[in-house]
Amino acid sequence: MVAVVDPSKYFQLVQPLIICLDHSILKKALVMIEYVPISQLSLAYSIAIYNKKMEVMGFEIQRMKTSISKTNFCKLSGLSITEDFIAQDNISTLSFIQVHQKMGYISDLSVLSQFKKFALPPIWNALFTIQFKCISKRSIGYDNASQVFHTLLYGLYFGEKIDF
Prior knowledge:
By secondary structure, the chain is of the alpha+beta class. It is about 40% helix and about 10% strand. The model has no long low-confidence stretch (mean pLDDT about 75).
């Protein structure tokens, strides 16, 4: 957490409190930033388990367990928890096929089972590979991706927020 201790950034009524905070022993803790290496974040998210019913994500790193609720995660990440998300079940197969075509898919595609990663343009191919490696437990066979991966590409392409 980083607190801004510049009184001019706040309403006049709150400014005296901020001035006091600037001289408080808590200031150091409130303005401290800690950088976390991407390798540790990647490890945490690769082993995360999401309980959709309880809306809680659990982590276990070096035999230490912790969890965070969807609400708290959204607050900490600066994401809105009240925005409407598109349910992945509301996206038709035809919509997936159309979005691949809009991306520049170079082969005929009439059903998702015909999907071949190589037919995506280079940037979308790379993005698909990265998301597949980060999320999937498989290390080969990217062409037989589940609906989840097509949904992610759909959301990225249109800038839509998808509820998984």
